[in-house]
Each structure stands twice: as structure tokens, then as C-alpha cells.
Queue: 2 jobs
Job 1
Amino acid sequence: MLKDSYGRQIKDLRISVTDRCNFRCFYCKSATLLSYKNREEILTYEEIERLARLFLNLGIRKIRITGGEPLLRRGVEQLIARIACLADVQDLALTTNGFNLYQKAQILREAGLHRVTISLDSMKKERFEAITRSKDFDKVLKSVEAAKQWDLEPIKINCVVVRGINDDEILDFAEFARSWDLTVRFIEFMPIDEDEDWSQDRVVTGAEILEILQTRYQMVPRGLVEPSATARNFDFADGRGRIGLIMPVSQPFCGQCSRIRLTADGKIRTCLFSLIEHDIKSLLREGADDSVLTEFIQDTVVKKEAGHRINEPDFVPPPRTMSYIGG
Ligand code: SAM
Ligand code: SF4
């Protein structure tokens, strides 16, 4: 079992398979491209599978494949198939911007993927294009449809709400959740953007979002399925559609955090906001055996921070931002 020094059990692993992305969401990446890692710096599928197996042996039960844009990496379905075959994977999910999921939904499902989370920040095509600096709005909607068709459920839509940008669309997203009978998760904007343009006043809090939802709907809070869940979940009174509020800024959930991350270039991160990373790739490539790697993972987990420090005056953003870490 993986336990940190605060007694939190670590059960949830996020694996980034690439630092590359074809979108440039303003709250995540700069408009201009910084450099990407070279191919040889990125963990191979064999290496990822081996580490995933060791993490699972230590009590990890949920694995999320992310990036960058994970569906940009060639043959990612082969990695999904390898991980899906490992013992003890209770939940295997993927987060994507949806640009080509409609082409891959079937193959991912057949490879053993359980479910998807698709990012979508606006229901308005032009605004979507301005936010993501891409032209793929119709493809993302097609991907939502494909995820339904291939039963990659429960489907979640991630919507980062930024004041003055898309906070007038909360009710439109609620209607979307209801018409597609899926979960829309509103996420508070976090200070982990490449442009360092974040400020507290641009954060639309979960409480504000709930207030807006309640002007039209009776929102029924769902009991906590898992205390470590990132979202506070709500049903609509008639049972169609669901809403999640992810509030890392206004209501940090660090005390119950069960997550750990593996970056595409083989670093373990104990927190999204960690200032340091733990290099497991070097060990792996030096030929370390499973017991050495297992011990390294255990020792790293013990170093997990008590929490992020977003709201502290001396907060320092991490040196690598969301798309390079793996959201
Ligand atoms: N490219 C994929 C995607 O966009 O779904 C996966 C990686 S992305 C980094 C994972 C999630 O992080 C997305 O849902 C995105 O909206 C979210 N994200 C990125 N930057 C963020 C920020 N500054 N604040 C809150 N969420 C952010
Ligand atoms: Fe947008 Fe995801 Fe790419 Fe970041 S990694 S720019 S959130 S699509």
C-alpha cells in the first residue's frame, strides 16, 4: 500500500504520454511554441507498462492517461491495451481535447479503455476557436457523440471557467449535460498556465457557478462516493445530466488527495504544484530491478506535499505547466 507521511493513501496514478499538444488553450499554453522533449527522452510504452505494473502492485487502482494531448501519440491504444491487461486496474480513463477521438473511440474501447473525459470550454464555435486557438470545434462535438456510441462512459466534459471569457455559458453547459445525459465538470482556473496570466479575480468559484445553476435548476448534491474525489457532484432533480464542481482554488481538496503523476519524460510528481520532480527514468534506464524501483516509488510518495499553496502570499508556480506535467 502507498501511504504518504500525512497518512493519505495513494490510489490514483495519472500518466502523461506526451508533452505535445495541437491546441493552445490560453489558460494552459502560450500561443508560441516552446520546445518539446525529444523522442528518446520520452518513456517508451514498455517502460510505462512496467512502471504502471509496479504502481498497481503498490495499491494504485485508478489510472488516467493524459498529456499534452494523449491521442497525438502514435499507437496509444497499444499502451491502453497493455495497461488494461494488468491486474487490479479498476478504472482506466483518458483525458483528451477530443480533436480525433471520434476516429479512435472504437479502437480505444476495444483496447480496454473504460471511459473518457473531454475538454470543452465553450459551446460557441468562434469562442472555442479563440480559447483553444484551434479550428476543431465540430470534431470535438463529433467526439462526444462517438464516446457515447462506443460506451466510453461515464463521459465527463471538463470546462475551465474564466471570468469574462466563458462564465456566461454556465447554463448552456448545464443544458448540454442534460441533453447528452453526461457530466459537465466546471473547473476553477488554476495558476499553472504557461503565460502566467492567472489572477484571483479571473477565477469563477464553484460557489458562484452553483448559484448561477440554481437560478434555473434544483441541484441535488450527491453524497461523496470517495472522499478523495476532486469534484463535488450534483444531479438535476429530474435525474438527467450531472454537474461536477472542481474547486482547487476556493476549496482545496489536498487533505484527501490520493493522486500521483508520472510525466512523459519519466519524472514522478507528488503534486500538480510540486516544485521538484523525482527522476525514475534514469533508474529504469540504468537497469534497476523491480525492487529498487518499488522502493524509489515508496520513498517518493512519502515526500508528497501537505497541499498546494495557491492561496499563500509566497506561492511559486511550478517550473513546468499543465500540458508538460499531465493534467
Ligand atoms: N490535452 C488534454 C485535454 O485538454 O483534455 C489533456 C491534458 S489537459 C492539461 C488536462 C486538463 O487540464 C484539461 O481538462 C484542461 O482544461 C485542464 N487545464 C489546463 N490548464 C488549466 C488551468 N490553468 N486551470 C485549470 N485547468 C486547466
Ligand atoms: Fe488545451 Fe489540453 Fe492542450 Fe493544454 S494540453 S493546450 S488544455 S488541449
Job 2
Amino acid sequence: MTLTKKGETKPAPASWGLTTRGGNVPWEYAPAPEATDHVQIRSEYGLFIDNEFRPSRPRASFEVINPATEERLARVARASKADVNRAVTAARRAYDTTWSRLPGSERAKYLYRIARILQERSREFAVVETMNSGKPIKESRDVDVPLAAAHFFYYAGWADKLDYAFPNREPRSLGVAAQVIPWNFPLLMLAWKIAPALAAGNTVVLKPASTTPLTAYLFADVVLQAELPPGVVNIITGPGEIGMELVKHPEVDKVAFTGSTQVGKMIARAVAGSRKKLTLELGGKAANIVFDDAPLDQAIEGIINGIYFNQGEVCCAGSRLFAQESVYEPMLEKLKDRLSTLRVGDPLDKNTDVGAINSAGQLAKVEELVQAGIEEGAEIFQPDCQLPDRGFFFRPTLFTGVSQSHRIAQEEIFGPVLSVLTFRTPEEAIEKANNTPYGLSAGVWTEKGSRIFKMVSAMRAGVVWANTFNRFDPTSPFGGYKESGYGREGGIHGLGAYLDLAPSGTNGR
Ligand code: NDP
């Protein structure tokens, strides 16, 4: 029914497709693709060293594709060991001759400039991010790009206030930062790494993931537009072994890595015994705990956002749902209903909720773990949605009847797959939530403030969200316990990771 101007009710027009029993809306959304004609992706990208795009030496390149269409987007240079050396040398020169000598207030001006340019070019960045990573445009437009700009704004504010940020310390920049980032939030991870490094007075060499280098190279354009001195930001592309060459380089003073626990451990071993400062942001298997007094509909939205945001390719994804037994049945029913409304498909479509998995390799990993879940006896539920013919898509999935020993409850799937488990008491929830080698994030849903405090202090997780999930803010530190890594990014903690913080009077000043 609809309300007329006079306050009378009349039947809704048939074209609205509303059913009287509140059933599924029987019509399809019209396609609403974001325009791509304002975006220019070059056919080839060189390495970005000393403010110039240069071919690798020897010349070599690899292909970058759109995971939603499997079409080629560009070729990018494949760096060699000699290129790593060139990039680090450029960063060292820039550190010694310009960047470390600039007052913080001058560094801040550059960072503010970058932040503003990111805002001005946000539409372009969002489209390129979506085309290259497969994430829905509404997420790159509303989350990734605004948050990336926010990080530059935030750290710009600290650049000239380091002494106030760390009282009784003598904050000093470290030198050259080597930064290796993953494919799930390519621009945002770049911002998490580059903004605090530059604010603290370091120069950087960044290696993006091989499947998602395009927004990093678009960012190189921003570096030019902001007129940063040459060598302050260098970006090189190449396989994992090039990442290893970079972090091992003797002229590197600081290493920051986000990615798999396996590679994180290799990097930790490689830099052990050196003077390099290291932060590792690795995998996760977050518990999202819902008590029976939680507002259920709100919790359902939080659970959906927790695991299906960015196709579940999120290190802090709420991939293990713990439902209190007394609400398990109604919650499951609501969850399945909500899952059935998620729209999977063209990431460039503004109505898409779940886009493409980032690569064929990642899709194979998700499929393998889902198969393991079925074979181990868990019960699978997937909505009956049509997947595109091409591209790396996977249906949003949930498993019930999951036991703690199942691989789907233990291993990071990094896909749109939720394992549902149950508990009776807060103590049982805590024990089960902590029963994982990871410790990155967690969520608690309850109306009781005292219970929130109890749960938060008992859970071994770097970030615990209460009555929300996947909230990010540049002012807030983020990082893990156990195999989720060490060190913090974001906030003052993230700034400190790029500084030597010797107590006052001991740094020779
Ligand atoms: P990786 O850890 O392999 O990749 C992350 C970054 O590290 C990429 O830039 C990668 O380069 C680089 N890299 C790879 N090998 C090395 C190495 N030996 N030395 C230095 N750098 C290296 O993650 P994957 O892409 O292989 O994903 C595998 C799994 O890792 C996922 O399924 C997921 O479970 C987890 N993961 C977790 C992330 C998180 O945010 N915590 C992010 C990404 C993945 P290149 O792309 O060229 O291989």
C-alpha cells in the first residue's frame, strides 16, 4: 500500500512488484554500471623510481587482468634484483638529501596535497580499483578511497607534532621503508603504509601485489601531481621473490608487510638479526559472537558485513559466527533470508554486493576449503543466485554443523564463506573464540555493557568491535596477536612504528 497526499491508502502500482505477503520482490534490478570512460588505464606501466616511469632492466613485464571479466587491463614491468637496488638507492638519496631535512610542517603540506588529490580523483581511483581487484564499486567508492584519503589527512596532521605525540621521547625517522602489500585493499593498504612513513620523515619503496598494481601506479601520478621530491615514493612490481629482495636489501631500515602468515614468517626470518624494524599484519579467523539479548536484525547486518564485505577477502573478516544456542534457530533463518538477497555479479554495478574473487588461484583455494567443509560433514547453504559466465565468482556461502576441528573453522579461507557454531555461556564463547592460532579481530553483539567489557578483555584479538563490525578509522590502531602478526598500523601507534623512539636525552641531540 502507498500513502496519498491526502493521507488515504491505495494499492502500490503493479510495476513496483511488491508482493502482499512480504515475499521476495519478483523483479530484477536494472543494470546500473559505473561509467569507465573517464578512466585511462595505460597499456603498459614501467617501474616508478625517482619520479619517473622506467622499464625494468632487463626488460620484462607481466599481464594484469580484470578478475570479473578475465580481460587484460595492462602489462606492468617485472622488476629485477638490479631494479630493487635502483629503487632503494633512489629512496636513500631522497632521504639523505631532501626528505629527512624538511621540517615536519613542510612534509605535512605534501601529505595534505596528496589527500586532496585523492579526493578530487576519487571516482577514477574507485573505478580502477574495482576493475583491477574485483571488489564492488560501492565499496571502493565509499570505503577504500575515502579511507585512503583520510589516512593521508590524519598523518599529515601529525607530521609537525611528533614531539607531542611521543612525550619524553626523541622521535627520529628511520630511513628507507620497504613495504610489501596484498591484493585485497590495494590502495588502502598503500595509504596505511605510505602516509605514516612519510609523515615520520622516511622515504619508501613499495611493492604492490602482482594481481593489483594499477591503483599504486595511479598513485604514482598523484605523487607527480603533488610535486613530491624525486625518490621519496618509489613503486616497483614483480613476484614475491622481488618482495623478498626488497625487504632484505641492506639499505632498508624498516619493513612493513601485510599478507599471508606464511610469507610473514619468511620475512621475519629474513630480517632477524638485522637492525630493521619490522611490522607484520597477517591472517585472521575472527569470531563474531552474538548473545541472545543482541538486537537480532542489527546483528544480522553486522554478520553479513563482517564476512561478505569485499567477498570475505579481508584479514579481519568475521568468518566464525558463534550464536548463543537460545537464538540460533531464528538467527539462522534470518541469516539465510538475508544471504538470499545479496546481489553477486558485475563489480562495476552500483547494486552489486559481492563482486569477483581476486584471482583464479584464490578462487581455487576457496573452492578447495569449501569442499573440505562438505567432506568433513558440515552442512552447506548457498543462495540460488546466477553467477556471471566469465570471471572468478563464488556464491556467498554459510556452513552449519561446524565443529571446531574442521578446517573451515581453523584455516583462513579469505572468501565469502561463513562457519556457524554455537555456545551456551560467555565462558564457552571465550574459549571457542580464542581457540585459533590467529588473533587479529573479533566482534561481540549484546545489549549489556558489562558483558562487552568482560568479552573484550578476555579475547586475544587486536581489535574487538562491539555491536558493529569491520569499522576502520585512521585514528585507531589495528594489528594482531599470535600468528596474526605484530606491531600496529593506524593511529599514533602506527606512526611510532616508523620512528626511532629513544628516551629523551639518549639520542645525541
Ligand atoms: P601473499 O602473502 O603471498 O602476498 C602478499 C604480498 O606479499 C604480495 O605483494 C606478494 O607478492 C608478496 N610476496 C609473496 N611472496 C613473497 C615473499 N616470499 N617475500 C616477500 N613478499 C612476498 O598472499 P597471497 O596473495 O598468496 O594470498 C594467500 C593467502 O594469504 C590468502 O588466501 C589469504 O589467506 C592470505 N592473505 C592475507 C592477507 C591479509 O591481509 N592478512 C592479504 C592477502 C592474503 P605477489 O603478489 O607478487 O605474490
